[in-house]
Design brief:
The complex is a heterodimer.
Chain A: H1 2-12, H2 22-48, H3 58-62, H4 68-89, H5 101-123, H6 130-135, H7 139-161, H8 169-189, H9 197-222
Helix pairs in contact in A: 2-7, 2-8, 4-5, 4-8, 5-9, 7-8, 7-9, 8-9
Chain B: E1 4-6, E2 9-11, H1 13-26, H2 41-45, H3 49-68, H4 72-93, H5 99-115, H6 126-147, H7 149-161, H8 173-178, H9 182-193, H10 198-205, H11 209-233
Antiparallel strand pairs in B: 1-2
Helix pairs in contact in B: 1-6, 3-4, 4-5, 4-6, 5-6, 5-11, 6-7, 9-10, 9-11, 10-11
The chains are: A mainly alpha, B mainly alpha.
């Protein structure tokens, strides 16, 4: 019991250290938005150095009545993932709150829509075209770029979330990974000229899922408390 | 083969592992129906147990609010008072445990409460927050035992043979502080062991008060890690 008293005496002298919880939300928002801006800026720099090419017909094709919706889905679905997971995030950061499973599943619906689009696109095409549709012209670039761009956003989020006390650190990391992957996809879509759902339905979902996996592992390591 | 008496019975290594595995598996069944949170039968017999619970809730909330506003004395009172609910919750979860283990977990929970105190929202009840932190740290402890079942049982077996206070391993904070290095150690020695306040420590070490706070905070984190290492190392000693 003496040791317990020592511990209490030691801890009670450190009462001023932590900021109130309301500051956490701002810290998270600032770090996440800043990381997204940095990643977007990096891609602009990369496009100036000809490593990435901003698609010149973006505005024209997005306003096309026939193709516009399909192209918009490349960014709308990841945006929806971000929005829904953000709404779910609050329930996962406080120790006394149990994260809602169904809210998380709702957040995953837009992600699951991408493979559905992929299957639908394949079902409308001849089987001998499938390989070309799936591999497209920039498969490797897509698979590498989305998780790479997402890493910085994920790192910023994990840093901000390390001040929380989640009941399930891996799941919180997974949520952060989904947000990071989805936002990286939104940015990457400005440079991606692959407009077939057979391509982006598969590889965008793959990129976001990989990032969610990295997030889960990071959460397990860095969000434990 | 190691065997140890728990609840007056002799169990082997496999049995011990089974008990811990069962406890860990049941954690995820349902939070509300989880064994960690099921109501205490003796408490239900008390006609005014809700009133008692509310009184504890109010008292702890008031103390914590004052603590978060910078009242060191109230924070000290809060930490003292919170020990009892933590201890009783741990006792419900760890029927196979012994007092030394429970005290280790209580200290661990106190460190966790201290590190994560900013995650308590003043408009929310404090008892569920404390219970959740206790649950998390206890499960963390059980996981550590499950990963090292043999070493943990060795540790238990020693105590179960003769569960006397002189044999109970304790965490020697002074020694642990001395294992730290540089500014962190000086700050922890000054504040934690010598009882000086932040401003006099800052003057003595010729650093800013903020630097003292940061060093103190880092020192506490390192102490927590040392506590965990010490507990992991029991089996290897």
């Amino acid at each position: 019991m003496t040791d317990l008293n020592d511990t209490i005496a030691l801890l009670s002298k450190d009462v001023h250290m932590s900021g109130p919880a309301k500051h956490f939300g701002w810290g998270y928002a600032i770090l996440t938005v800043a990381s997204i801006i940095i990643v977007a800026s990096l891609t602009i720099v990369a496009s100036m150095g000809n490593w990435l090419a901003f698609r010149p017909d973006y505005m024209q094709i997005i306003s096309d009545p026939d193709l516009g919706l399909t192209i918009a889905l490349k960014q709308l679905l990841p945006l929806l993932i971000t929005l829904l997971i953000l709404l779910d995030l609050r329930g996962a950061i406080y120790p006394e709150q149990t994260p809602s499973g169904w809210r998380f599943m709702v957040g995953l619906l837009p992600l699951l829509t991408l493979p559905v689009l992929f299957i639908m696109a394949l079902s409308h095409a001849d089987s001998h075209q499938w390989a070309d549709m799936i591999s497209g012209g920039s498969l490797l670039r897509c698979v590498i770029f989305i998780p790479s761009l997402a890493l910085l956003i994920l790192a910023a989020q994990i840093t901000a979330l390390s001040h929380t006390a989640p009941q399930y650190p891996a799941w919180l990391g997974c949520r952060a990974g989904l947000i990071a992957g989805a936002m990286a996809t939104v940015i990457y879509a400005f440079y991606c000229t692959e407009d077939s759902p057979a391509f982006f339905g598969l590889w965008y979902a793959f990129g976001i899922t990989v990032t969610a996996g990295i997030g889960a592992v990071s959460g397990r390591i860095f969000l434990r408390w | 083969m190691i065997s140890a008496g728990i609840w007056g019975q002799s169990i082997g290594r496999t049995d011990h592992k089974t008990v811990i595995g069962h406890l860990l598996r049941n954690r995820y069944n349902s939070v509300n129906n989880c064994f960690l949170f099921r109501s205490i039968p003796t408490l239900n017999l008390c006609p005014d147990w809700r009133g008692m619970k509310n009184a504890i809730e109010t008292e702890l909330s008031t103390l914590m609010q004052a603590a978060l506003n910078g009242d060191t004395g109230k924070y000290h009172d809060f930490l003292k008072q919170v020990v009892h609910p933590i201890r009783s919750q741990i006792a419900r979860v760890m029927p196979f445990g012994i007092s030394a283990d429970r005290d280790d977990i209580v200290q661990d929970v106190l460190f966790a409460i201290h590190q994560k105190k900013h995650t308590w929202r003043m408009d929310q009840p404090i008892l569920p927050w404390i219970r959740a932190i206790t649950k998390y740290r206890t499960i963390d402890y059980l996981r550590r035992i499950e990963r090292q079942p043999t070493t943990a049982l060795d540790h238990h077996a020693d105590h179960l043979v003769a569960d006397t206070p002189d044999l109970i391993e304790t965490i020697d904070l002074t020694n642990m502080v001395h294992r730290l290095k540089g500014k962190t150690r000086h700050v922890l020695e000054s504040i934690g062991l010598n009882g000086k306040d932040i401003s006099s420590t800052a003057m003595a070490l010729n650093i800013s008060e903020n630097a003292v706070r940061i060093a103190f905070h880092r020192g506490l984190k390192k102490l927590t890690q040392l506590c965990q290492h010490k507990k992991k190392g029991h089996g290897h000693d």
